Structures are given as structure tokens and as C-alpha cells.
């Protein structure tokens, strides 16, 4: 199996040291992608935050795809950038880290608190296998209307549904269904999101009717 197939199939692989000409060529492709993404991300992080046009222009070059009204506070770091796909109305606070050796898909109206890490890549448990940098990568999917709290870590292969809140400090190791609040290490569903949440924005405090004014 080729290096590209291994990467995209969730199997163990190495990013370098291959002998097959096809794999050597692909090593060079991903090395260029990584370098290009890191250079653009460096430029993004050094750009004045008031220069909205330049920052959006850079984001369009960094990301695989992006929708309207996308804002990511600096600093941000990507492994590649080109493997991350962001929908409309996305906001990420300071310190977002996206380890995107394979695809990360983020839906519409997603918010990330400070220091969120999204990681598609892991390493085998058996120590000898890690000595040459062997790893595996599994895509991450995040639905629409998701709020990810500060210091959350999202692990390889996880799918987070629509209309979900992930509490601060959580480590998300397994899929999270639609319409729930989940938190903890490991992250677990705490409760459903219900019509009561339309009436009270936090416990015992009703939604003020003028909040859109």
C-alpha cells in the first residue's frame, strides 16, 4: 500500500524514509504542503489584527476551504492548513491548534474558546513503533452550531454532532451526538439541550428579550 493510501486509510505510516519512487514523490508533496502552510500561518500571526482584508486573504490561502465571516485570533497553528475545511460564521479564540495531517471538517456557526486543540494524528502505544515517527491519522468532523470551550482537546477520528456544547477542559475521545452538553476527561454527555435552554441562557437566568437589539 502506498504512503498516500496509508495516510488516508487510518493505518500506520511514516512521512519519510521510503524507497518506492511513488512514495518518495508523495513525501515531497506533503513536505511542500507543510512548509507552505506554516509559512502562511507565520505571516497570518504577524499581521496586524486590524488588517482584516490581509488576514482573510491569508486564511483563504492557508485553509482547504472556508465560508463567510471566518475569524481566527492569532496565534493559530496548523500542521498543514490545506486539510482544514471551515464553514460559515466560524470564530476561534487565541491559541487554536489544528493537527491536520488529514481532513478536519468544521460546520457553520462554530465557536472555539482559547487554546483548543484539534488532533487528527496519534502514535502507536508500543514504544518501538514510535522510534521512527510512525503515526496514524483519522479525520475529525465538527457539526453546525457547536461551542467548544477553552482548553478542549479533540482526538483523532472524533465526530461532534450539531447543536453541541463541549465544556472547558474536556478531552473528546469518542463521538458526541446532536443536541447535547458534554464535558469531562474523557468527554461524556451530561445532558440534552432542550426547549428550556431557549428560555434560560444559564441556570436560573432567563434570556433577556432585548438581547438582539
UniProtKB/TrEMBL annotation:
GO terms for molecular function: acyltransferase activity. The keyword Nucleotide-binding does not apply. Its EC number is 2.3.1.-. InterPro entries: Hexapep (IPR001451), Hexapep_transf_CS (IPR018357), LacA-like (IPR039369), Mac_dom (IPR024688), Trimer_LpxA-like_sf (IPR011004). The keyword Ion transport does not apply. It holds the Pfam family Hexapep. Keywords: Acyltransferase, Repeat, Transferase. Residues 4-68 form the Maltose/galactoside acetyltransferase domain. Belongs to the transferase hexapeptide repeat family. This is Acetyltransferase.
Amino acid at each position: 500500500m502506498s504512503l498516500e493510501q496509508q495516510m488516508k486509510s487510518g493505518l500506520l505510516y511514516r512521512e519519510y524514509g521510503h524507497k518506492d519512487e511513488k512514495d518518495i514523490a508523495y513525501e515531497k508533496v506533503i513536505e511542500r504542503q507543510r512548509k507552505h502552510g506554516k509559512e502562511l500561518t507565520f505571516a497570518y500571526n504577524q499581521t496586524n489584527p486590524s488588517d482584516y482584508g490581509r488576514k482573510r486573504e491569508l486564511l483563504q490561502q492557508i485553509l482547504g476551504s472556508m465560508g463567510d465571516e471566518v475569524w481566527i485570533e492569532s496565534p493559530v497553528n496548523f500542521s498543514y492548513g490545506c486539510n482544514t475545511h471551515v464553514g460559515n460564521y466560524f470564530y476561534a479564540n487565541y491559541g487554536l491548534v489544528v493537527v491536520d495531517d488529514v481532513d478536519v471538517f468544521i460546520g457553520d456557526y462554530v465557536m472555539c474558546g482559547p487554546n483548543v486543540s484539534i488532533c487528527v494524528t496519534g502514535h502507536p502505544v508500543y514504544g518501538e513503533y514510535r522510534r521512527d515517527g510512525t503515526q496514524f491519522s483519522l479525520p475529525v468532523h465538527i457539526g453546525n452550531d457547536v461551542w467548544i470551550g477553552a482548553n478542549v482537546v479533540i482526538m483523532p477520528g472524533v465526530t461532534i454532532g450539531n447543536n453541541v456544547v463541549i465544556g472547558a477542559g474536556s478531552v473528546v475521545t469518542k463521538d458526541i451526538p446532536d443536541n447535547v452538553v458534554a464535558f469531562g476527561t474523557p468527554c461524556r454527555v451530561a445532558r440534552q439541550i432542550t426547549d428550556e435552554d431557549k428560555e434560560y441562557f444559564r441556570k436560573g437566568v432567563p434570556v433577556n428579550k432585548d438581547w438582539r437589539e
